[in-house]
Design a protein that fits this description.
By secondary structure, the protein is an alpha+beta fold. It has three domains: 13-133, Phosphorylase Kinase, domain 1 (2-Layer Sandwich); 138-209 and 221-347 and 359-456, Transferase(Phosphotransferase), domain 1; 528-597, no CATH class. Helix content is 27%, strand content 12%. The chain has 15 helices and 17 strands. Strands 4-5-6-7-9-8 form a six-stranded antiparallel sheet. Strands 10-12-13-15 form a four-stranded antiparallel sheet. A three-stranded antiparallel sheet has the order 2-1-3, with no helix packed on it. The protein is globular and about 70 Å long.
Length: 599
């Protein structure tokens, strides 16, 4: 099978006739053997035998770093996915050492919710390759194009992903590019869904010193829609980077769409600086408040405010998937669950601290309802049992500052775009068009629970205040919270892949606001321009003030301010280019003065 080209007259690749490496760009000679490259769209590996044991059958897809093939082992009736880096990557000395080191580390993974590496090597001609188990099924990204699954199925997938990540993180591996394209879902007999994380082949090895990790300094790896703030800014990554992406995936599973609309660059900037909207504001169905606080905990801007270990996320996910809402609440730190009242029937007790002991998650609760999701490990998730009856969560009517909502309409995500050095994904492994949760009679209809604005945690997301910096409980604004009623929304649009299409405009009506009758007037703060703030803090401060202005005045009245903010150079560009940094600082300070003056 040959790789297709959008312009047959201009091949996208060049191939080495000696080592069979595939190159991108304008390379003329192979750096490995000096052979003159041949410009073609025909892949020389297809039809050949790689390393004397893998019969290459077809190209499955291309990614940021290389190409993925379907292959059959010549001595076994078994098929594998073979990754071969592009020539400019595979023949770079440092990149090759990094590939070999990290692929060897990823080969230690052996888990039902992780697709592992089975072989790493190079051909006699010097071509590097990685062999992985081949998952027959569809990617989670493809399934989400059909709409969000029932909440019980979404929570089951969430728990399975947390299970696979826990296995990897406890062995020193960080994925760095967790996204629905890198999750394969298999439909097994008996109505069972099994989700598995793929592409750990180039994961970050978190053990050892910086020299042994061989990760290029300043390299940005990831997909903008799911990138944590530390990825956007090029900071050091750890397991909490994957937890941020897991939170975005859970948001998408429940809402059927991403938290923000826009281009990949705009969404990466929103993930960096803007407050996370509520799931309910983006969904077409009721969302339990406990799920709102879970997503907000996973997607905190500061990683020291996210869960400290993936295992506690796994415990939380298992309780949610089993319908054990009381036990799930017990796993949450006190400041995270502050917007939620104790579950009905619970005895009044002092608020536990964030490090208080939690109940043993492996002891079943007789009173807890049984969900439609089977145990996560080792048994896969079943989707056909009786519907769950989640315990209702009472909401304290105290006036808590509402979490800002994103009111900017924009385009749906374009799945084909990734960061410049994103890991190559296997998004198209599906052989059949099955929608496992369509028409499921057991899918539960969740009763809408009373909702209240969610606490922003120990500090506002954009301001990024740390719990360690302030031991006092989260401050509650004495001003009665503005009540927002969500309008009827159109069904979520399918996610397109046309990178050149004009952004689609969301024509759904904007939320209707109802203001309390006797809201006291807060004292007017003097305008300021953020003097003394770092560039990153300045972006966050402006984003926070802009969201507050939208909440006070409405989207129409603040449209000009929002357009000015969108015109500011993205943070990654500003931090790397002095001229853009000066332009960004000037405009951000002007915006901050105008925003604080209009309070």
């Amino acid at each position: 099978m040959s790789a297709s080209s959008s312009d047959p007259a201009a091949p996208r690749f060049a191939c080495c006739p000696t080592c069979q490496a595939v190159f991108r760009g304008t390379y003329r000679r192979c750096p490995n053997d000096g052979a003159i490259l041949i410009a073609t769209d025909d892949d020389p590996l297809v039809g050949s035998v790689l390393a004397e044991r893998y019969q290459i059958e077809e190209v499955l897809g291309d990614g940021g770093l290389g190409r993925v093939y379907r292959a059959r082992h010549v001595r076994m009736s078994r098929r594998f996915a073979i990754k071969v880096p592009f020539g400019e990557v595979g023949y770079d000395r440092k990149a090759r050492a990094r590939l070999a080191n990290e692929a060897e580390a990823a080969s230690r993974l052996d888990h039902p919710h992780v697709i592992g590496i089975v072989d790493v090597g190079e051909t006699a001609a010097g071509l590097f390759y990685i062999a992985m188990d081949l998952a027959e099924g569809r990617s989670l990204a493809e399934l989400l194009e059909d709409g969000p699954p029932p909440p019980a199925v979404a929570l089951g997938i969430f728990a399975q992903l947390a299970d696979g990540l826990t296995h990897a993180h406890e062995r020193g591996l960080v994925h760095r590019d967790l996204k629905p394209d890198n999750v394969m879902v298999t439909h097994r007999e008996g109505g069972v869904l099994v989700a598995r994380v793929i592409d750990f082949g180039l994961a970050l090895v978190s053990e050892g010193d910086a020299a042994t990790r061989l990760t290029t300094e300043g390299m940005v790896v990831g997909t903008p829609y799911y990138m944590a703030p530390e990825q956007t800014t090029g900071d050091e990554l750890d397991h909490r980077t994957d937890l941020f992406a897991l939170g975005i995936i859970l948001f998408e599973l429940l809402a059927g769409r991403l938290p923000f609309d826009g281009t990949p660059q705009e969404i990466a900037r929103q993930n960096l600086a803007a407050a996370m909207p509520s799931i309910a504001s983006r969904a077409d169905r009721p969302i339990e408040p406990v799920l709102e606080v879970v997503v907000r905990w996973l997607t905190r801007k500061r990683r020291d405010e996210r869960p400290s270990t993936t295992r506690e996320v796994l415990e939380l996910a298992r309780h949610l998937a089993a319908g054990e809402r009381d036990r799930a609440l017990a796993v949450l730190p006190a400041w995270v669950r502050a917007p939620l009242a104790p579950p009905p029937g619970a005895r009044p007790s002092p608020e536990p601290s964030a490090d208080a002991p939690v109940p043993d998650p492996l002891v079943p609760s007789a009173a807890a309802p049984v969900g439609p999701v089977a145990p996560i490990a080792p048994a896969p998730v079943a989707i056909t049992p009786a519907p769950i009856a989640p315990a209702p969560v009472a909401i304290t009517p105290a006036p808590i500052a509402p979490a800002p909502r994103s009111s900017e309409p924009g385009a749906r995500r374009r799945r084909a775009l990734v960061a410049a050095v994103a890991l190559f994904a296997l998004g198209g492994l599906g052989l059949s068009r099955w929608r496992p949760w369509a028409g499921d009679p057991a899918a539960p209809e969740l009763t809408p629970a009373a909702t209240a604005p969610l606490d922003a945690g120990p500090g506002a997301d954009a301001a990024e205040a740390s719990p360690a910096a302030d031991a006092a409980p989260a401050v509650v604004d004495a001003t009665p919270a503005e009540v927002v009623t969500a309008p009827d929304r159109a069904p979520p649009r399918r996610m397109g892949v046309d990178d050149g299409a004009a952004p689609a405009v969301d024509t759904a009506p904007r939320p209707r606001r109802r203001t309390p009758d006797a809201a006291p007037t807060a004292p007017t703060a003097p305008p300021d321009d953020g003097a003394g703030l770092s560039l990153r803090a300045l972006y966050g401060r402006v984003a926070t003030e802009l969201d507050r202005a939208v909440a006070r005045q409405g989207a129409d009245a603040t449209a000009a301010l929002r357009h000015r903010f969108d015109a500011v150079p993205p943070y990654p560009d500003a931090v790397r280019k002095p001229e853009l940094r000066a332009q960004a600082e000037t405009e951000l300070r002007r915006l901050l003065r105008d925003l604080t003056a209009s309070r």
